[in-house]
């Protein structure tokens, strides 16, 4: 046994001494790069789909899939930082998800609480700003206070923005934005004919944030599912077959490579 350890340490065995600097350099070398450095991706949004099917195929309860989904979310956050993204948006809980069985909804709420409680200090240390988009007013009081705390304690961070879409629906977001603008019209703050796209963008939950460059959806489904309907108008979409719990660094990098292999025309001609 001792000989095996010695062989590994001296290079005569199958393993060699770990070199953190070398390993980090090798990890960075496989990061996808744009052909034009000026077109580097800034914002990726992900529809995290497939937790339930992942669990079902393994004979596990759905909550087990959701727990593994939290682990996948942590991997995505780390990879986003490695890629140098300024923004990552994760679609965590939709306004339609309230229709699921009560036990599953409770589990999803509890997982959100656990994620914030366990990871908030780390996000503060690592200069990550947390933003929650969605209808916070209708959340359970304990969840609402917790997400507000996460936003408050990371408000001064400027290294990376993590947006979590929680109790979010694109149509609901637009409804709330239009209602806000309508109130301003009624108060005489603005005239109807003066309303521009900028006014609407500023009334959305994502006000001040760049639109996503890339939207990734897992689990093989090819739908937008009421996600960032306004903001993703010119985003590129990548649909992956992997269920969300199986989404890792390799899948993330593959999606970004696909993005860099496309020509973005924004409605114009190539």
Beta-strand share of residues: 5-15%
Q: Strand order, biggest sheet?
A: 3-4-2-1-5-6
Q: In percent, how helical is the residue content?
A: 40-55%
State the helix count.
9
Rg calc: 21 Å
Q: Mind telling me the CATH superfamily name of the domain at 40-169 and 213-260?
A: Decaprenyl diphosphate synthase-like
What's the architecture of the domain at 40-169 and 213-260, going by CATH? 3-Layer(aba) Sandwich
Reported for the largest beta sheet, the result is: 6 strands, parallel
Structure summary, number of beta strands: 6
Structural class: alpha/beta
| CATH-assigned fold name of the domain at 40-169 and 213-260 | Undecaprenyl pyrophosphate synthetase
Give an overview in words.
Mean pLDDT is 90; it is low at 1-17 and 20-26. This protein is of the alpha/beta class and 270 residues long. Strand 3 (128-133), helix 6 and strand 4 form a beta-alpha-beta unit. The protein is globular. The protein has helices spanning 2-10, 20-29, 51-57, 62-83, 102-125, 141-153, 170-186, 197-203, 249-260; strands at 43-47, 87-94, 128-133, 160-168, 214-217, 236-239. It has a domain at 40-169 and 213-260: Undecaprenyl pyrophosphate synthetase. A 6-stranded parallel beta sheet has the order 3-4-2-1-5-6, with helices on both faces. It comes from Aquisalinus luteolus.
Q: What distinguishing features does this structure have?
A:
single chain; 270 residues; alpha/beta; Undecaprenyl pyrophosphate synthetase; six-stranded parallel sheet; 6 strands; 45% helix; disordered N terminus
Give a summary of the structure in a few sentences.
With 270 residues, the protein is α/β, with parallel strands linked by helices. The protein contains nine helices and six strands; from the N terminus they run H-H-E-H-H-E-H-E-H-E-H-H-E-E-H. The protein starts with a helix and ends in a 10-residue tail after the last helix.
């Amino acid at each position: 046994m001792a000989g095996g350890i010695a062989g590994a340490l001296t290079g005569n065995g199958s393993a060699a001494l770990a070199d953190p600097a070398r390993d980090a350099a090798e990890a960075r070398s496989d990061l996808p790069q744009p052909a034009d450095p000026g077109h580097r991706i800034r914002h990726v949004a992900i529809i995290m789909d497939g937790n339930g099917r992942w669990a079902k195929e393994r004979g596990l309860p759905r909550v087990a899939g959701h727990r593994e989904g939290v682990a996948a979310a942590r991997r995505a956050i780390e990879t986003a930082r490695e890629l140098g993204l300024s923004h990552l948006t994760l679609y965590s809980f939709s306004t339609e998800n309230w229709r699921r069985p009560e036990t599953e909804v409770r589990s999803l709420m509890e997982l959100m609480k656990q994620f914030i409680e366990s990871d908030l200090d780390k996000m503060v240390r690592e200069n990550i700003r947390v933003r929650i988009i969605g209808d916070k007013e209708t959340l359970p009081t304990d969840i609402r206070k917790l997400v507000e705390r996460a936003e408050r304690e990371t408000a001064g961070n400027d290294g990376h923005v993590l947006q979590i879409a929680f109790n979010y629906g694109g149509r609901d977001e637009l409804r709330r934005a239009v209602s806000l603008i309508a109130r301003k019209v009624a108060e005489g703050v603005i005239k109807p004919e003066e309303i521009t796209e900028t006014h609407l963008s500023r009334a959305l939950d994502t006000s001040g944030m760049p639109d996503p460059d890339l939207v990734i959806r897992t689990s093989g489904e090819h739908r937008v599912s009421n996600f960032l309907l306004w903001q993703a108008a010119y985003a590129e979409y990548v649909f992956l077959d992997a269920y969300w719990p199986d989404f890792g660094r390799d899948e993330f990098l593959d999606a970004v490579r696909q993005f860099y292999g496309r020509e973005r025309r924004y409605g114009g001609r190539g």
